[in-house]
Amino acid sequence: MSIQYIGARYVPKLFESPNGGAAWIPNIAYEALTIVTYANNSYTSRIPVPASVGSPNENPHYWASTGVYSAYVETLRQEIQAVSQDLDQAEQDIETLNSQAGQIPTLSARIEAVNTSLTAKNLQQDNEIDSLNKKYYKFKDRKVLFVGDSYSEGWTPDGTNTGWSARVISLLGLSGAVIRHKSGIGFNHSIDNINFSNIVDDVPNKDTFTDIVVCGGRNDAPFTEGDIIGAVESTINHYKSLFPNALIHIGMIAFSTESTTVEITKMYIAYLNGTEHRGEHYLYGVETALSSGQYMASDGMHPNSNGQQKIAEAVATALVSGMFRQARNLPSLTRDTTNFNSGVMAAKMIGDNVRLIWTDFRGDASTPIVSGGFTYLDLGTHDFGLRFFGGFTYFSAIATLTYGSGTRVTIPVNIKIGKDKVTAEFVISKPDGSGWASGNITSYTIFHGSALLSIWD
Q1: With a threshold of 0.70, does the pTM exceed it?
Q2: Closest of 394, 391, 395 to residue 456, by C-alpha
Q3: Which of 102, 136, 170 is the last residue of a domain?
């Protein structure tokens, strides 16, 4: 008897626009793990995206940026190609001028001008190529520890391949790199009492490492999202205590052609949130490296040689893309203990933007509901040190409220960031402006996540 899986997608899929290509178009809904392109970038939907949600770059709750570096490389490639075409034309001009040199007295000056232009274009091309090389090879002098499972080992039932970690070492020209891997382990899952956290305990000279790169996923599938997030965070804490000078980079890599569902979306969200909660670097884009069965071995569980190469290229690109900064001693939220019992919010700068990262906000309150409008709860004060255009900014999240005699409802909530204050703005009105509830809020949960916000200074 054959088994057919019916339900949410668990394999990333490139969006097929009616206009051709994969460009994002507004006013349509997208399934989870749909890849679109927008503004020289690519984005992967974290969860189902309603048709009312705007552009991917302004809605990080729904979309994860996964291709900034690839877009940069493609733009640079096109520019270099244009320069090369200019050089070809310049060489043709020189040949024409040389053939006419005896006819027009001023041709020697024109030839000199063309040669000067040619030299400048050559210099520009050399500088652009040198810039790209420096960007790609800036990891060369870093000392990196790689941690993984059977994907890193390269094991398949068809024979052992070179794993992704060894391939990244080769791609980036690393020296002194160390690999620790064991088949079957993860952040949660242990084999012989070994997991991602403690497999590094025997590594010598820990203070000399500049980076730790951890990729896994499949072996954590049996665990809940909350359990995985907790294990990722505790592993990061353990690494920080052992490797005081190392940046930590984490990515989720998993794919399956089996009939058994592997919850890739759950693991991706858990790895991403657990990493960003602790202020470390998620390797955006690696979760889509294994995009089809052609990259898998005969068991449908382990990557073949082509799949290993795809993973390595994605990891290398994410490491050198320059899209992250070390986040130590993050500015944070001081909770209002009257309304806010547990949860953490922190901020870090990314260029001219600020990334807010938060765990579940939970609280008990006795606040009257304002039916047909907004009900407000103070979450606390912040020391983000930022001023937003108009004096405040906000982002949207999802919350559950318990109110009245125990009625529970899931609704939108706006998290409003002012000069030094953070407020939850619960939406109590229907689309037509009328209210739907009355009584007092008794408890609430605002679910964890992250948001990228623009600032004006």
Answers
A1: no
A2: 391
A3: 136
349, part of any domain: yes
| Domain shared by 160 and 75, yes or no | no
Same domain? For 103 and 157 the reply is no
Task: List, for residues 150-171, the tens digit of each pLDDT value.
Answer: 999 999 999 999 999 999 998 8
Same-domain status, 292 and 186: yes
Per-residue pLDDT of 59-86, as tens digits, reads 888 888 765 445 444 554 455 566 556 6
Find the largest Cα–Cα distance for the chain. Answer: 100
